[in-house]
Structure of Sugar phosphate phosphatase:
Amino acid sequence: MLKAEDAFPLPEPLSARHKDSFAYTTMKDRQPVILTKVIDYLFRERKEIAEVYGDDVLEDLKAINELLAQLRYELMTDKPLSPLNESELPDVHDWNHSLEEARFDCAAKHEDCSWFTAPWLLVECYLYRRIKDAFLKGSGTGKLKHFDFFADQKKSSLLDSLSSVRILGNFLLDKLSHLQPGNPDASKTLFFHMVELSLWGNKCDLCISGGNPNAHTSDPLADLDVFRQNILSDHLDDIWSFVKSSMSLGPAEICFIADNAGFELFSDLALADFCVSIGFASKVVFHVKSFPWFVSDTVESDVEFLLKVLEEEGLCSLALRWKSYFETERWSIESDHFWTLSEPFPNMKKIRPLLYERLSRFRLLVVKGDLNYRKLLSDLNWEHHTSFELALRQFHPCALVTLRTMKSDMVAGLRPSVGKNAHTIDPNWMITGKYGLVQFSGRKDTESKCSV
Ligand SMILES: O=P(O)(O)OC[C@@]1(O)O[C@H](CO)[C@@H](O)[C@@H]1O
């Protein structure tokens, strides 16, 4: 198979070194704001936090905020990136290896490896890892080591999205009660809708809004017809052909590499339920983050909170249905520290071979969101018309679908005029979340084992 690096020199990684880039804007404006909001939150809520965890955490909060203030100083004054030196999480070696490689590349350009010279993917992820570091180091009592400092924002975002949740939830329940088993063609249009709903669920995240409230408030079903023209790369037909032919092999295990909690997670569970109900999937695994990440990314407790809210807010039958999926292990949640590294997915086979092997056992991966897309395509500055397959750089544990609204200036797999036309309509087309991609690769690495 043709490798991208054999066809032409690989493009440069996106980096804040380019002052006219979106990477520069995020590192200069968005990241300091997100960090400052964490500091403010811990200070503002210190008494409430102490009520839950005990008064001794007041000292922890002070220490954590000192570490976060130091981190903000390093970011805003573009200091060299320092290695991680605590070893409580299993990722320290991998992180320090990534930092060492970046340092080597910067040295070749006679530069320090800093927030504004290193690859954007590395520094953006590093910020969240360093925030986690502050909690691990600063919590002398140990009580706040696993505190979710973004939980309140995620909860509010879900509660603010309840009207959209109710519309989609009732729609799903109604459609599920009318499915025609044994007649997959009858489900085709609905399958397209469920995929699109999960795609547009990615529109709102709390990172793009710099931690400001960003909920889904419109009617997600009414939006579908309006938004369809904004899907710039649409492989829905290929996905459906794959799903249909796969169904003749018997139900399969599939996996979501999840992104944001709140409405997006709800739309993902709705799609997963649909895949189960039409007989495509026998099991669904949701891979989530193991610590707070990019503000609104899903951690396990966000799934629990979602189910609780559904139960309390008039979608009890859906909550019970999904709870029973989890209880019977038809659905399950997994996590891996690879998701909170800065490494592109094509490096997974080398860095986390067991995870690659695990993914190769699924029939389909659903890769959600903008950051996962950037990692999937290595966050390189691809020509927009580079083929999606080539840009995957041989990441083929199994067939995969990516559902991503565009919130960063990196894309591949567009037909030649598509980007130009979108740019004419909206010069910010790559970063607003208004445009979306549904891209598919049916290829499977023949060297990886397959049990399904
Ligand atoms: O992965 P998600 O939740 O869809 O988006 C994350 C995001 O908001 O954060 C990054 C910018 O800081 C971008 O990659 C993207 O816009």
In short: The chain has two domains: 22-138, 151-441. Residues 26, 30, 124, 202, 205, 207-208, 259-260, 294, 369-371, 374, 407-408 surround 1-O-phosphono-beta-D-fructofuranose (CB under 6 Å). Residues 22-138 form a domain with the Transcription Elongation Factor S-II; Chain A fold (CATH 1.20.930.60). The longest helix spans residues 22-44.
